[in-house]
Amino acid sequence: MKTFIRVMKALSDPNRVKIVKMLLAREMCVCEIRSALDLAQPTISKHLKVLEDAELVTSRKEGLFVNYRATASSENVYGRAMLLAMPDWLNEDKDVRSLLNRLPGIDRQIILKRL
User: Which of 5, 27, 54, 91 could serve as 69's disulfide partner, Cβ 3.0–4.6 Å?
Assistant: First the structure.
């Protein structure tokens, strides 16, 4: 039951749901997620930690960047079930639709040039 509760708690926050929806669409770094959601970097990092602890996202280092993607471990049946269903969920929500439509224009190289 602990795994189930951890997954449900991780997905109980609207911003974490948005992060998962984005990461289902493509791999992203923290700066891209921050730019998409307009939240502070520490807030994004905390959300990603909760999602990692629930085994809903994984990360890998690539040079200066840490890239995140939505994936559930093979042992996490609840996480896998949620990630399999989520591509079909919330696509008509105006905030989610707007966010997903903006994703192609969010690029780490452009973000870094602005800093």
Answer: 27
CA-based nearest residue to 22, from 80, 81, 95, 73:
95
Beta bridge pairs of residue 69 = 58
CB 26 within 8 A of CB 103: yes
Give residue 75's domain range: 2-114
| Residue 29: Cβ within 10 Å count | 18
- State the pLDDT confidence band at 4, using cuts at 50, 70 and 90: very high
Q: Residue 41 maps to which CATH number?
A: 1.10.10.10
Report the distance separating Cα 59 and Cα 86, nearest Å: 19
| Residues 6 or more apart whose Cβ sits within 8 Å of residue 18 | 36, 37, 95, 96, 99
Q: Which tokens in the block code for residue 12?
A: 């109980």
Number of domains in the chain: 1
What pTM was estimated for this model as a whole? 0.94
